Amino acid sequence: MKAGTFETLRIDEKVDYGYYLTNGEERVLLHKTQITDEIKVGDELDVFLLLDSEDRLSATMKKPKITEDTYEWVEVVDVLERSGAFIDIGLSKDALVADDHLPFLREVWPQAGDMLYCTLKVTNNGKLFARLGTEEVFESKFIEADRELFNKEVSGVVYRMIIAGSYIITDEGYKGFIHSSQRTLEPRLGERVTGRVIDVKEDGTMNVSLLPRKHEAIGVDAEKILAYMEDRGGAMPYWDKSDPDDIKETFDMSKGAFKRAVGNLMKYGAVYQEEGWTFKTREQDINPE
């Protein structure tokens, strides 16, 4: 018997702290904290073998979330700088994704609560480790994206990082790439992100931006001005040189705030000014793509 395997064993003896199980040749302890159902001597149990806190082979009736033959999303529960990321695999002991399997930059290591797609690895001495899914593993999970997803919002988890950017797998199973120019901060490995599809390629993969849409970036004051212009058919008798009191009365904002908001709208091509008036552009589309 060895750690990291499933075994069907018979209950051989009951003791104060649990039961001893046997395969007819060897015995292993099933501690009372590892029992999930009512059992009695003579029963046959399907158990998972692992090392206890004193590195002795033991059994558990709990089922691990991952095995050496399966991959699953598992949650990060702790991160130690000189060790790596510990993940919850459904057992009393967490498994470690070693630091040499994590990004070089410590700033983009996963944090507690992030999700990693892992399989279980058991060392020759019975220690349980977790290994991240490779690109080849993820290829079997991806589905092709349709062009109709262009400019739509998608959410997913960062599963791979390169110098040029980050790869995500979306909730639907699409493969997305976030170029370094399409983010303000580099997301962590295992971090859940939400972005906008800015391109769908012929191979069914997509490019995703984490930058805000321009109408989201212009600010609350600019939105108020746009709404006012919408109600007036796309024009208003106010511009940079309008009287501060008129601006305050109409928009409830200072002239400085008004000029900054209108400046943003002009920067994004949403409005233009002529002879004391501000007009919306004929094609009111302030999205960057």
Automatic annotation (TrEMBL):
Under PROSITE patterns, the record lists: S1
* Domain of life (superkingdom): Bacteria
Domain named S1 motif is located at 151-213
Q: InterPro entries this protein is in?
A: CvfB_fam, CvfB_S1_2nd, CvfB_S1_3rd, CvfB_S1_st, CvfB_WH, NA-bd_OB-fold, S1_domain, WH-like_DNA-bd_sf
Say which family it is in: Belongs to the CvfB family.
UniProt-recorded name of the protein:
S1 RNA-binding domain-containing protein
